[in-house]
Design brief:
The protein is an alpha/beta fold. The protein has two domains: about 10-225, Rossmann fold, CATH 3.40.50; about 230-295, Alpha-Beta Plaits (2-Layer Sandwich), CATH 3.30.70. The chain contains twelve helices and 14 strands. The strands form three sheets. It has a six-stranded mixed beta sheet, sandwiched between helices. Strands 2-1-4-5 form a four-stranded antiparallel beta sheet, with helices on one face. A hairpin with a 2-residue loop joins strand 4 (about 65-70) and strand 5. The longest helix has 16 residues, at about 170-185. The two termini are about 20 Å apart. The relative contact order is 0.13. The structure holds adenosine-5'-triphosphate.
Length: about 325
């Protein structure tokens, strides 16, 4: 997992948003880099949509600012906004146009080169080509989602902001969208998306930020999130044979919490997999053990998410946020 190789594409600097007296987002700092997929995760009402709308310049923050490609985003920043592609949870599509007319309209708006070719390419890629002459209003929810995604991609934006991009899609379409997002990352695009679908987040995101009650509680890659949630990691080691000296040596290691033996297999519970793997393998080999295989089984994102957003949020937020 990485933070992408590129420059910071979008940065939130202390974004806060009040709706009347209600604080929807509080002092949000985050950065997404070129070539990186960042997922914003949070329970209902956590402030994800509000955060994304501020980053898009659609709603004005009560305080804080947004930097896009290093420049401060303002109402008049048309050239900057042109470099973003957006899919919102509730697509505002023009129902009385055909699919083709709709896409051609946006292609013209963004002065897309070789628009016919691009429209055809995306319609084929997302398997909507057979619906090109159908009215947008007659499309199913999932097809509208795909159409919104094509509209967002037509002008080849450098930043994709996707609010629940796979919501309402069937399994096959979800897979298509996942592949498409990964392909865009490979092309060096920055992708920021929000989702409730934890498997999407787990498979796609390089980094995840967890928002709860408007605050970014934790941010990091999967390993860091599991660590932040205090979830232990299990290391499974297959040995040629289990010697008592090996078990004794492992129990002396500070990073090892528990050792279970099963045939020639050891299940070792440890809190910090990244640092502890080499300590574990050293302890085993110096006690005369022969390792045949070794693999870690970390907690799922769901477990980490539920732990992080449970009742102890205040303690977690104070203890873990590194700013
Ligand atoms: P969900 O996962 O349910 O879509 P979310 O994380 O996207 O939620 P937001 O839609 O950003 O959350 O809402 C954050 C908070 O701000 C909620 O308490 C919501 O009720 C409130 N809120 C959002 N939009 C408005 C608005 N236009 N006026 C008043 N309150 C709002």
């Amino acid at each position: 997992m990485s933070e992408g190789n590129g420059a910071v594409v979008v940065a939130a600097e202390g974004l806060t948003k009040y709706y009347g007296k209600h604080k929807a987002v509080e002092n949000l700092h985050l950065k997404v880099h070129a070539g990186e997929i960042y997922a914003l995760l949070g329970p209902n009402g956590a402030g994800k949509t509000t955060a994304l709308l501020m980053l898009l310049g659609i709603i004005t923050p009560t305080s804080g600012r947004v930097l896009l490609f290093g420049e401060e985003l303002r109402d008049s920043s048309f050239a900057l906004k042109r470099r973003i592609g957006v899919v919102s949870e509730y697509q505002n599509l023009y129902t009385s146009m055909t699919v083709w007319e709709y896409l051609a309209f946006f292609a013209d708006l963004y002065s897309v080169d070789r628009k016919e070719e691009r429209i055809e390419y995306w319609l084929t890629t997302l398997q909507l080509a057979d619906y090109a002459d159908d009215y947008v209003g007659a499309l199913s929810h999932g097809m509208r989602q795909k159409l919104g995604l094509i509209r967002a991609l037509l002008h080849d934006p450098d930043l994709l902001i996707l609010d629940e991009p796979t919501s309402g899609l069937d399994a096959r379409a979800i897979e298509q969208v996942r592949r498409l997002i990964q392909a865009e990352r490979k092309r060096g695009k920055a992708i920021l998306f929000s989702s409730h679908i934890l498997t999407d987040v787990e498979r796609l995101a390089d980094r995840v930020g967890i928002l709860h009650q408007g605050r970014l509680l934790v941010e990091g890659d999967m390993e860091q999130l599991c660590e932040a949630a205090g979830k232990e990691t299990q290391v499974e080691v297959q040995l040629q044979s289990v010697l008592p000296e090996v078990i004794a040596a492992l129990r002396r290691e500070p990073c090892v919490h528990k050792v279970l033996e099963e045939n020639n297999r050891l299940l070792i519970t440890t809190s910090k997999a990244a640092d502890s793997l080499s300590q574990i393998s050293q302890a085993i080999t110096s006690a005369g053990g022969v390792i045949l295989s070794m693999q870690t089984k970390r907690a799922s994102l769901e477990e980490a998410f539920l732990t992080i957003t449970n009742a102890n949020v205040t303690t977690l937020a104070d203890g873990l946020k590194d700013r």
